[in-house]
Amino acid sequence: MSITDPRLQSVVKTYDIRGLVGKDLTEEVVEAIAAGFVDEVQAAGTDVIVGHDMRDSSPAFAAAFARGAQTRGADVVSIGLCSTDESYFASGYLQAPAAMFTASHNPATYNGIKLSRAGAQGLSMDTGLGAVRDRAAEYLRDGIPAVERPGTFREEDVLERYVAYLRSLVDLSGIRPITVVVDAGNGMGGLTVPAVLGEAAGLPALPITVIPLYFELDGTFPNHEANPLEPKNIVDLQRAVVEHGADLGLAFDGDADRCFVVDERGSAVTPSAVAAIVAVREIARARAEDPDAEITVIHNLITSNIVPETIEAAGAVPLRTRVGHTLIKDAMRRSGAVFGGEHSAHYYFRDFWSADNGMLAAMHLLAEFGAQDRPLSELSARYTPYAMSGEINSTVDDVPAAFTRIVEAFTPRADFDELDGLTVTGRVAQDEPFWWFSVRPSNTEPLLRLNVEAADQATMARIRDEVLALIRG
């Protein structure tokens, strides 16, 4: 079917829906998407969960979604203000499809929708989101026909159940006293952190002192963008950790589904190190449940080599995947993996319906840290033995030509694979430092994304600079 409404072409992405408020994303568009979603997941006569973040436009969009869903017969369960992982919890716990209104780390002028099938199963362009878009296009053109029995509407508060469930997965009651600075970035962490790590949900106190930064829910993000992946956005956290003499710092993005970590010196702990630490804990837990089980842990192809090395050392099987949260959710379900980690600080758990949950990853880190007496800088150093470039973006008009230049330059001395873009691994002699790099095109922009890792900083810098010259040449 050809898509005639340019608004849908603009806002429906590979893994979610996102666009400029009032220009691309309007209440009319949201109502049509809701109707298409209900049809696609066959939710007429059953519950559909609707939650939203703290952006100014989110409540009105959630109400518009409810109208569209009810028109097509779905019974809307409004869970109100929540984090994205709280909406996944509701989808899993209540076994119902869900819509979460958020634009995650994007600026205040944006909003979007993360859609899930029942059980927090993700929707991507290839697994239903494209069909939702096509149905919505029809409804925008012809109107949304009401079914014979329109859906109902009720409100339900799931926060306390969400917190209790997380605490059942990670016991923090016996750790040593810890002081943690948490930067919520005026996002939904301001709601969930006091509930999970404090007493706001009515659960017993933990031996954790939380020093809050920017816990006020404010979708205009008055202090800094709620995107901790950008180094400039964790500067306040790094400073506060040192000033307060805290044990560590946590930073959440706008919808609080990703968590970033800094140690007691204010230095960033890589998401790969966090993934390795959590993987060891989840492998041990699965091994305790079934000593003879084959345990699988997922990592995407641009995490550090330390991640698969740690998984193997712990007696489990590492499974390398493409980048993308919906892809990894699907791979988690197919493989039965107990855990999955990404370079972007998305962390996935079998016992959380294979969905991602930054808060749960933070709890695992706190539990591991609090069970020993070393500073976090020492603990994380064990899982950061190699030099990484981080992701470097370059604007490229002719991606195939850039790939050709790279292949020609590295063919005599490297192996290649095309699982996701191009991964190039050096054929090095036994006494030479290892290196690899990944080059992936963006799904939405004329960009190439480069990640390099090597045994030491000098080798990493040499390979990085050589590849960047080829990309930009």
TrEMBL record:
<dbReference type="GO" id="GO:0046872">
    <property type="term" value="F:metal ion binding"/>
</dbReference>
<feature type="domain" description="Alpha-D-phosphohexomutase alpha/beta/alpha">
    <location>
        <begin position="11"/>
        <end position="120"/>
    </location>
</feature>
<dbReference type="InterPro" id="IPR005846">
    <property type="entry name" value="A-D-PHexomutase_a/b/a-III"/>
</dbReference>
<keyword id="KW-0479">Metal-binding</keyword>
<comment type="similarity">
    <text>Belongs to the phosphohexose mutase family.</text>
</comment>
<dbReference type="GO" id="GO:0004615">
    <property type="term" value="F:phosphomannomutase activity"/>
</dbReference>
<dbReference type="InterPro" id="IPR005845">
    <property type="entry name" value="A-D-PHexomutase_a/b/a-II"/>
</dbReference>
<keyword id="KW-0460">Magnesium</keyword>
<dbReference type="InterPro" id="IPR016055">
    <property type="entry name" value="A-D-PHexomutase_a/b/a-I/II/III"/>
</dbReference>
<feature type="domain" description="Alpha-D-phosphohexomutase C-terminal">
    <location>
        <begin position="391"/>
        <end position="469"/>
    </location>
</feature>
<dbReference type="InterPro" id="IPR036900">
    <property type="entry name" value="A-D-PHexomutase_C_sf"/>
</dbReference>
<dbReference type="InterPro" id="IPR005841">
    <property type="entry name" value="Alpha-D-phosphohexomutase_SF"/>
</dbReference>
<dbReference type="Pfam" id="PF02880">
    <property type="entry name" value="PGM_PMM_III"/>
</dbReference>
<feature type="domain" description="Alpha-D-phosphohexomutase alpha/beta/alpha">
    <location>
        <begin position="277"/>
        <end position="385"/>
    </location>
</feature>
<keyword id="KW-0597">Phosphoprotein</keyword>
<protein>
    <submittedName>
        <fullName>Phosphomannomutase</fullName>
        <ecNumber>5.4.2.8</ecNumber>
    </submittedName>
</protein>
<dbReference type="Pfam" id="PF02878">
    <property type="entry name" value="PGM_PMM_I"/>
</dbReference>
<dbReference type="Pfam" id="PF02879">
    <property type="entry name" value="PGM_PMM_II"/>
</dbReference>
<keyword id="KW-0413">Isomerase</keyword>
<feature type="domain" description="Alpha-D-phosphohexomutase alpha/beta/alpha">
    <location>
        <begin position="161"/>
        <end position="266"/>
    </location>
</feature>
<dbReference type="InterPro" id="IPR005844">
    <property type="entry name" value="A-D-PHexomutase_a/b/a-I"/>
</dbReference>
<dbReference type="Pfam" id="PF00408">
    <property type="entry name" value="PGM_PMM_IV"/>
</dbReference>
<dbReference type="GO" id="GO:0005975">
    <property type="term" value="P:carbohydrate metabolic process"/>
</dbReference>
<dbReference type="InterPro" id="IPR005843">
    <property type="entry name" value="A-D-PHexomutase_C"/>
</dbReference>
